[in-house]
């Protein structure tokens, strides 16, 4: 009887203690799993499989300044090659484009890269204003469930810090020009999606070897970061680095709830910049790190589904429409060059040049030749600027006597297309030199004369016959 009562009491006590024991086991398991995940996050690559978009396009914002000629902006070709090496293509976003053109290009890109450089970060400066608008578009897209990654490198990281803090004096000065350095991981590095995507040996190399190329005078101190609650809510600090004097600055940031990453270091330089006056790490470990970081960002871009309306619009926006210039060629031994190659882009504000555009016109019920002549006349008559410009054309290629009457125009959605090899350059900006302008104006004057004669003086039924007589010097 006593034994039976003891067994019953034992069962009752066990049942009473079961919830507590179970809770303790669950809590311990969760805590151990959290610690294990934190410890292993830097040891186990967690690369997402992002194959929703197999044709990713990244937008790169251009900027004014050296090495671009006056009135033009540039994109260092190393950024383009870096993204292409991971399977992406590039659309240049001109820093001085109109808002409508910027939004048009944002709509066809799957991610944004804000590059390094020396542009001014102040309201009213076109580079800053365009960068801010692009960041706002990216934030809005992500808020609406449209996954859109953004990466800032060097100046790009500083740009994000200024924009998201709304503090134009938040940056400090550091002695970190030509100063490759290891990364000092913070406690929040364990939660970094970027680091977790990298192979463990690459993460270790970044921590133990000076393979991250630092080359900047400005930067973000930890104290300034902590003094700005908005930045702390948006970004986690993944790593710090030390400048030549031993001062610490933030070298890697990552968005807490947005797919934003920022590095004060240059992952694109390791594989694609070769200037001898900078100590850019070119070791196997450095090259591999550069590639893995590119792979991460492009994989993020594959999660975005933006695309052009058609292949013509896509082709017209790609950076393949421009040729890189060998800016790293030395004229003498010891000359300092920043970039091996760069793309020079002419924007609508180029000084000393004239922009020629065509007015958006309805050309229905007009023959192809007449429509072309009238549009050409509108271009010439419009002067230096036409409101409502739809696109810019390279007229010195179009205005050849033998092709004046072989061009046809058709309207397809919001773009004009030509029947011969020169497609419309929707959204692209192309300026003409004075010599090119003179040639274009002369050809346009000829078109105007032909159009006038055809309308007022030529009465024959065959247009080709009338044109031939006109070109031969015979008029009615």
Describe, in plain words, how this protein is organized in 3D.
The protein is of the alpha/beta class. The chain folds into two domains: about 290 residues, Rossmann fold, CATH 3.40.50.880; about 100 residues, no CATH class. The protein is built from 16 helices and 15 strands. An eight-stranded mixed sheet has the order 4-1-5-6-12-11-10-8, with helices on both faces. Helix 3 packs across helix 4, helix 7 crosses helix 11 and helix 13 crosses helix 15. The longest helix is centred in the first third of the chain and has 39 residues.
Protein traits:
476 residues; alpha/beta; Rossmann fold; 8-stranded mixed sheet; 3-stranded antiparallel sheet; 39% helix
Distance between the termini: 134 Å
Level of helix content?
A: 25-40%
Number of strands: 15
Choose one word for the global shape: globular
CATH architecture of the largest domain: 3-Layer(aba) Sandwich
Mean pLDDT: 76
DSSP summary: helix tally: 16
CATH superfamily of the largest domain: Class I glutamine amidotransferase (GATase) domain
**Rg, please?**
30 Å
The percentage of residues in β strands lies in 5-15%
- The oligomeric state of the chains shown is single chain
The largest sheet, given as strand count, sense and whether it forms a barrel, is: 8 strands, mixed
| Low-confidence runs | 16-48, 349-434
């Amino acid at each position: 009887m006593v034994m039976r009562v003891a067994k019953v009491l034992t069962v009752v006590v066990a049942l009473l203690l079961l919830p507590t024991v179970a809770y303790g086991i669950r809590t311990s398991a969760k805590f151990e799993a959290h610690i294990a995940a934190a410890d292993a996050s830097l040891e186990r690559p967690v690369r997402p499989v992002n194959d929703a978009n197999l044709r990713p396009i990244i937008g790169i914002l251009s900027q004014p300044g050296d090495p671009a000629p006056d009135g033009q902006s540039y994109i260092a070709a190393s950024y383009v090659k870096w993204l292409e090496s991971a399977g992406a293509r590039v659309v240049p976003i001109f820093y001085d484009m109109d808002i409508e053109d910027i939004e048009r290009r944002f709509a066809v890109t799957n991610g944004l890269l804000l590059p390094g450089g020396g542009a001014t970060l102040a309201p009213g400066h076109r580079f800053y204003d365009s960068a801010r608008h692009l960041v706002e578009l990216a934030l809005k897209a992500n808020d609406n469930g449209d996954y859109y990654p953004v990466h800032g490198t060097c100046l790009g990281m500083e740009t994000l810090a200024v924009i998201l803090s709304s503090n134009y004096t938040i940056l400090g000065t550091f002695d970190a020009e030509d100063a490759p350095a290891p990364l000092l991981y913070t406690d929040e590095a364990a939660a970094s999606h970027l680091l977790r995507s990298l192979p463990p040996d690459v993460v270790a190399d970044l921590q133990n070897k000076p393979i991250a190329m630092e080359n900047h005078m400005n930067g973000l101190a930890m104290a300034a970061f902590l003094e700005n609650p908005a930045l702390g809510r948006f970004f986690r600090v993944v790593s710090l680095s030390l400048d030549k004097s031993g001062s610490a600055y933030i070298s890697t940031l990552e968005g807490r709830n947005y797919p934003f990453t920022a590095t004060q270091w240059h992952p694109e330089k390791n594989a694609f910049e070769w200037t001898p006056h900078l100590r850019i790490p070119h070791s196997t470990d450095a090259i591999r790190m550069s590639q893995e970081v590119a792979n991460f960002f492009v994989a993020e871009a594959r999660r975005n589904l933006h695309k052009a309306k058609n292949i013509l619009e896509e082709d017209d926006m790609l950076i393949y429409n421009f040729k890189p210039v060998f800016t790293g060629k030395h004229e003498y031994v010891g000359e300092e060059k920043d970039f091996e190659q760069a793309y020079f882009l002419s924007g609508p504000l180029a000084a000393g040049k004239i922009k020629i555009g065509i007015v958006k016109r309805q050309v229905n019920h007009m023959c192809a030749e007449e429509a072309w002549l009238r549009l050409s006349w509108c271009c010439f008559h419009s002067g230096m600027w036409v409101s409502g410009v739809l696109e810019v054309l390279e007229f010195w290629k179009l205005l050849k006597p033998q092709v004046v009457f072989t061009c046809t125009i058709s309207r397809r959605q919001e773009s004009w297309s030509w029947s011969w090899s020169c497609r419309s350059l929707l959204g692209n900006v192309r300026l003409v030199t004075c010599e090119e302008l003179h040639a274009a104006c002369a050809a346009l004057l000829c078109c105007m004369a032909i159009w006038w004669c055809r309308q007022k003086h030529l009465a024959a039924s065959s247009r080709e016959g009338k044109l031939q007589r006109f070109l031969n010097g015979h008029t009615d």
